[in-house]
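seq as requested:
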Amino acid sequence: MASLRSVDPAELRAAITAIFPWLSGSGAEPARPELAAAVRLSLRTLAADAPGKSVEVRVPPFAAVQCVEGLRHTRGTPPNIVETDPRTWLELATGRLGWADAVESGRVTASGTRADLAHWLPLVRL
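struct tokens:
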């Protein structure tokens, strides 16, 4: 699980800015450390914005966080899971992709009654 210490908004914006040309289709794929930083910081921001432990958001291979108020799971696979790839997650986090479109197209797997993150997205706009 990713650390839940607070995220400096300037640090998040810098991490997203570094990978933004790739997200918008005008740049090369970012280096793994840049991509990892953007994913991890944005997931930590989500966890801070939507505190709780009822939903697990996974963006392999970089990070996973638990968020959203509700019943907390303590063992095994949680009942509410969101999973996606790094690019899709960052498109959601920046508002380049809508939640409903991502789920309908199969780019996001969301299971459980609380696994709808539309309320908290986007996290940052550039």
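Residues 20 and 85 are 16 Å apart (CA to CA).
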